[in-house]
Amino acid sequence: MNSETKVLDRVVIRIAGDSGDGMQLTGDRFTQESAAFGNDLATLPNFPAEIRAPAGTAAGVSSFQVHFADHDILTPGDRPDVLVAMNPAALMANLADLPAGGTLIVDTHEFTDRTLAKVGQATNPLTDGRLEHFTVHAVNLTQLTLDALAAGELSSRLGRKEASRSKNMFALGLLSWMYSRPTQGTLDFLAERFAGKPEIAEANIAAFRAGWNYGETTEAFGVAYEVKPAALPPGTYRNITGNAALARGLVAGAWRARLPLFLGAYPITPASDVLHELSKQQRLGVKTFQAEDEIAAVGAALGAAFGGALGVTVSSGPGIALKSETIGLAVSLELPLVIVDVQRGGPSTGLPTKTEQSDLLQALYGRNGEAPVPVVAPRSPADCFDAAIEAVRIATRYRTPVFLLSDGYLANGSEPWRVPDLAELPDLAVEFATTPNGPDGSFLPYLRDPETLARPWAVPGTPGLEHRIGGIEKADRTGEISYDPDNHDHMVRTRQAKVDGVAVGPTDLDDPTGDASLLVLGWGSTYGPIGAAVRRLRRAGHAVAQAHLRHLNPFPADLGEVLARYQRVVVPEMNLGQLAGLIRSRYLVDALSITQVRGLPFRAADLAEALQGVITDD
Predict the structure, then answer these.
(1) Chain centroid offset of residue 360 CA
(2) How far apart are CA 332 and CA 348, in angstroms?
(3) CA–CA distance, 561 with 589 (Å, rounded to integer)
């Protein structure tokens, strides 16, 4: 039996196979156990858009990457230290990312002439010398799984094909042994997950245990590894995805606003999990409505806002395009509405399961007329919770629709989240109009709060507060239909002033030495890669400042002053330079863009290299 254990400070593991091989479940279980163990972690699920892509092809490869460490980390890792490949397609699709000396675990069962031909391989990479720079463990995971299940006659009861589907749990058991992961949580999960199918539960549990025992007893793996828990701030933690955090943030925001939450949504990748999560919260007064299309979904959410609820709609870029006219109506009606855009690669259908940051200009300007809308963006999966509460604050306080720009990387990725104490959450209590506010006892629906410029929110049916509703321009104060040129000019400028006046905090600036000449400015999910790249440069002796924007409309009031302190400003984005263009036009700063639209987040090493080039040029 193996007894040697080496302690590591961090490990990146990628598990890859066919989209039907259970790679996402395998990665999620390893992640959950790492979170329970106390590691800091970040994950990157990556899967095809097709419901069932052709088996054994590059198009059908699904992978899950997890980076876990004994210290604070910011990204799921640039490259895996360990790659588990369940077939030739998974190997060939991911091999280029494995650095020399990396560990490769391969299911040899799938390496046949037929499967190799599917990915254009004339020779077997396991035997032709291409893998000589890696530590290769060629293991017949499928056969070992069948052998383990045959011992309990499970393979005969399930059938060979059904029994072989448990090979992902064999791989998970092996990885759990290799990296000293807890096992009881996974055993309990499998028993509960397949409680209605006891033979499937038994097969998966048997395969998981067999994988762990294989690592423990075989001589092929001479050492196990341990990554100790991270020193996180005290509190209660859970591992959470961005979509789950966002859904909980909306619930918490509605609760602190003393409002019922109504979600009008139409399923779309990668936003659908917000609908799924909120549909489970009926006991908290959440109502979810899966509409027949995107237009009906946002219309229902706006109607709920008119009725006195927190109206929320969630979609991705294509759905946001369909919602644009109703969002403009919400601007005109000046009602609170939270619009969640979980961005993905475009245009059109684009890359449904891949990430991008290309909807910023759509959120800012994608409506007819002058229709200003506040825009906020979370920086990490856990931060989706706080960003959602901030969106609720702005929407309810200023009576305006608000965009919340997440993306696929945040939505599907996960990290530890410290569950907040309810007392830590801001008080967002809303006061509805209850009595007439006009000098003659009438109700003036557009008589504004002098501080926020918000109009009264009157719940339909409140006696004496009847008022006209609709999309045609309103007269100031009375809300009657108006075609008066001066009134229209006044209302347009007032709505813009209301958004410009939204109270936001100062620019989030990190400049430890105070003498940096280079500022790296980002927004949204680039926070992790930028932060990791900046750490690398600082360790190399360079003074580099980092600023990250949560509020993209309005910008923080001090942003211009912050930008003016630095000789060079660099803006990395997963688009072709949308924020950089805004910075140039607004502040007349010669901001340099670093962009990519590969459907994947930045690699910290690539970003550090690009920033090093800027420093060298200076």
Answers:
(1) 16
(2) 28
(3) 11
Mean pLDDT of the 307-321 span: 98
For residues 5 and 42, is the Cβ–Cβ distance under 8 A? Answer: no
CA nearest neighbour of 380 among 44, 83, 3: 44
Alpha helix (H) residue ranges in 466-564: 485-500, 527-539, 559-564
Judged against a pLDDT cut of 70, whether residue 23 lies above it is answered with: yes
Note the pLDDT of residue 223.
86
Q: Give the integer Cα–Cα distance in Å for 616 and 609.
A: 10
Report the predicted TM-score, pTM, of the whole model to 2 decimal places: 0.96
With a cut of 60, say whether residue 71 has pLDDT above it: yes
pLDDT confidence of residue 618? 64
End-to-end CA distance of the chain: 57
Q: Which residues pair with 82 in a beta bridge?
A: 13, 103
Cα–Cα dist 287/458, whole Å: 21
What is the signed CA dihedral for 444, 449, 452, 456, rounded to 10 degrees? -40
Tell me the C-alpha distance between 582 and 575, whole Å. 13
**Structure-token pair, residue 435:** 């009595």
DSSP annotation of 507 reads -
The pLDDT of 600-618, averaged and rounded, is: 93
The DSSP letter of residue 351 is: B
For 143, residues 6+ apart whose C-beta sits below 8 A from its C-beta are 109
Query: Angle at the Cα of 421 (from 420 to 424), degrees rounded to 5?
Result: 90
- Given a cut of 80, whether residue 156 has pLDDT beyond it is no
Q: Of 207, 209, 202, whose CA–CA distance to 183 is shortest?
A: 209
pLDDT digits 0-9 by tens, 45-58: 999 988 777 889 99
Residues 301, 446, 388, 599, CA torsion sign: positive
Picking from 398, 411, 44, the residue whose alpha carbon sits closest to that of residue 247 is 411
Tokens representing 90?
Answer: 């998974």
> 52-60 long-range CB contacts below 8 Å, 24 or more apart?
52/19, 52/20, 53/19, 55/18, 55/20, 56/18, 56/87, 56/88, 56/89, 56/110, 56/115, 56/118, 56/119, 57/89, 57/118, 57/119, 58/89, 58/92, 58/93, 58/119, 60/18, 60/19, 60/89
φ, ψ of residue 198 to 5 degrees: the values are -60, -35
**Residues 6 or more apart whose Cβ sits within 8 Å of residue 152:** 202, 206
How far is Cα 40 from Cα 22, in angstroms, rounded to an integer? 24
Helical residues (DSSP H) of 565-603, grouped into ranges: 578-587
CA 295 – CA 241 distance, rounded (Å): 27
| Residue 413 neighbours by CB distance under 10 Å | 27
Cα–Cα nearest to 209, from 127, 145, 154:
145
pLDDT tens readout for residues 578-602: 999 999 999 999 999 999 999 999 9
Whether residue 367 contacts residue 331, with contact meaning beta carbons closer than 8 Å, is answered with: yes
